Every structure is written in C-alpha cells, then in structure tokens.
Amino acid sequence: MENSHLQVTAVTNLERFLSQKQFSNRDLLQALHNSTEIFKNPILENKEKKIIQKTLLTVLDEVAIRFDLYTTKGFLDCYFEMLPTYKTGKETFTALNNDFEKMTGEKKYLDFKSFKEVMGMN
C-alpha cells in the first residue's frame, strides 16, 4: 500500500508539472516515460490505475500536440527526441508506437521494420 501511495504522489507531481505548460520537449517525453513506468506497476489498485491512466492520456495528448504525431515528420521528430531515454531504437519505436495506439486505437506502423522502410533507415 505504501508503494502504491508513492505512485499516486508521483502522478500528482506529474499533474502539477503539466499544469505549468512551460517545459521542454525532452521534459515532456521524460514525463511520458515516467507515467508509463508507473502505470506498469502490478501492485496498483484499480482506483489508482484509473488516476494514472487519466494522467497518462493527458501527457499523451500534450505529446501529440507538441510533435504533431499524426504526421510522419512529427512521429519521426518525437522518435529521435525519445531515443536517449531508451536502450535501443527498436525499444524507442515500440514505446512510441504503443503510445500512438493508446491515443488513436491503431498503431501508426505495423512494426519496426516497416517504420525503418518508410523512414529510409535501412
């Protein structure tokens, strides 16, 4: 329960951060990464998961607006901005493509291979 309370506190801090509306793209993407990691915690109760999910969607919306994720260029810009946060390009792509799916209900790219082909990264 204590760990769960810390998770909700982290989300509250994240909400305060988002309300400022003056933060760098890198800070925003770090917030996205952090909120995704918090959401993965298996000990969270349903009520807490709903709070975190709402915050996660708020962060995703802000990312979509900032980077215009619906365009190929925006997706690619966001990918390169997120790259330092993850161990590999494939991990970065998977996280971003999954986030895109959370927002739209569909993945932007079928898989990493198709993403690289579209981007001319082969």
What topology emerges from the helices and strands here?
Layout (H helix, E strand, L loop, with lengths): L1 H19 L4 H15 L6 H22 L4 H11 L6 H16 L7 H8 L3
Briefly say what this structure is.
The chain is mainly alpha-helical and 122 residues long. Helix content is 75%, strand content 0%.
Model description:
With 122 residues, the chain is an all-alpha fold. It has one domain. Helix content is 75%, strand content 0%. It is built from six helices and no strands. The chain has helices at residues 2-20, 25-39, 46-67, 72-82, 89-104, 112-119.
**Roughly what fraction of the amino acids lie in strands?**
under 5%
Question: What's the main sheet like?
Answer: none
Give the radius of gyration.
15 Å
Number of strands: 0
Low-confidence segments, given as residue ranges, are none
- Total helices: the number is 6
Q: How many domains?
A: 1
* Mean model confidence by pLDDT: 80
The separation of the N and C termini measures 47 Å
Q: What gross morphology would you assign?
A: globular
What is the element string, with H for helices and E for strands? HHHHHH
Comma- or semicolon-separated keywords:
122 residues; 75% helix; 6 helices
